[in-house]
Amino acid sequence: MIPLDAIEATANTLMAKAAIEIPDDYLAGLRAAADSEDGDLSSFVLHAMLENYAAAKEDGRAMCGDTGTPRWYVKMGNECRIEGGPVALEAALRRATAQATADVPLRPNRVHPLWRTDHDNNVGIGAPEIEYGFEPEGEWIDLITVHKGGLFGTDYRMLFPSDGIEGIKRFYLDSLVAFGKRGLACQPAIIGIGLGGAKDACMVLGKRAACLRTVGNRNSDPRIAELEEELKELGNSIGMGAMGFVGKNMVIDCNIEVGYCHTGGMQMSVHAFCLSSRRAVARIHADGRVEYRTDPDWFTPYQRRETVEWDLPTSRAKSA
Ligand code: SF4
User: How many Å lie between the centroid of ligand 1 and the Cα of residue 55?
Assistant: First the structure.
């Protein structure tokens, strides 16, 4: 059984890690962008951000004054048991979010949408969001926190199947140009695209594509992987770079996730994970061991399973 105190202590550590330490994969992508950028202002921004990330790590302070909106993704192996059950788990994640707001500190960004009530701790009705996933085997729990910035860097469009790949590219470019021109998110960013599902599922897929995949990781469907490469290149060829200035690095990577949809439609969402791509991950084992990493490894073959049955891994199938 996973001890609750291990969950809360790990969640506290993750909140600080996410706010302060830029993940290595994104940092490498940003360095590559800085090396290739020839737009004056874009280049200035990229180098300033690299210095800023180094200073944040050295000083142990948040990498951006806007610390975004913390959220949690929780994944469990099928045999995982948590002390106190799921209600205790959620309470621990909410406490850790409030604690980190005071300790790191994080900007208390969460308010009631109508009354603007602010508990000063990033916790409120439905906040932080906590989403769940499961894997067929294991006694572990993965805690993933994402401090999502880029409040306006998200859009949705209902496409028709006949819009095809050209329609996807059109909406993608429309979104990127709007994000850059109107200052809706800080670029360059990891862009996540959700295709299919219902409208709500499409939004979830796109956000997960932006926040839960690392730079350089490709979709397991080779045709989607090819489209990801193509869209990355396309996004970097519109003449816009960092913060919407003239340049050629607007997209650090482009990730696509799909879900089956109604035959009459082809839903599409676009999400920018902004210049501060904050995520931190830990696996807690049943014996209390904790392993930290920055790759959420969310989109396993099980998460992308195609139809009714899931084949057990060979080791398990033999012993069953
Ligand atoms: S969009 Fe991201 S980098 Fe820009 S201010 Fe918000 S959190 Fe900071």
Answer: 17
Whether ligand 1 lies within 6 angstroms of the CB of 240 is answered as no
Say if ligand 1 is within 6 A of residue 7 CB. Answer: no
How many CA atoms, within 13 angstroms, populate the side-chain half-sphere of residue 276? Answer: 25
DSSP string, 226-256: HHHHHHHHHHTTSSB-GGGSBSS-SEEEEEE
Ligand 1: residue of 66, 250, 273 to mutate (most ligand atoms within 8 A of CB) is: 66
> How far is it, in rounded angstroms, from Cα 130 to Cα 81?
18
Note the pLDDT tens digit of each residue in 150-176.
788 899 999 999 999 999 999 999 999
| pTM metric for this prediction | 0.94
CA distance 251 to 317: 42
How many residues are present in the chain? Answer: 320
Domain boundary assignment for the chain: 4-18+63-148+279-293, 150-272
**Mapping DSSP to helix (H, G, I), strand (E, B) and coil, where does residue 287 land?**
coil
Residue 289, SS3 per DSSP? coil
Per DSSP, the residues of 99-129 read HHHHHTT-------TTT----SSS-BTTBS-
Please report the atom of ligand 1 found closest to the CA of residue 185. Answer: 1
Give residue-wise pLDDT tens across range 39-67: 999 999 999 999 999 999 999 999 999 99
Task: State pLDDT tens for residues 283-295.
Answer: 999 998 999 999 9
Ligand 1 site, residue 276, Cβ cutoff 6 A? yes
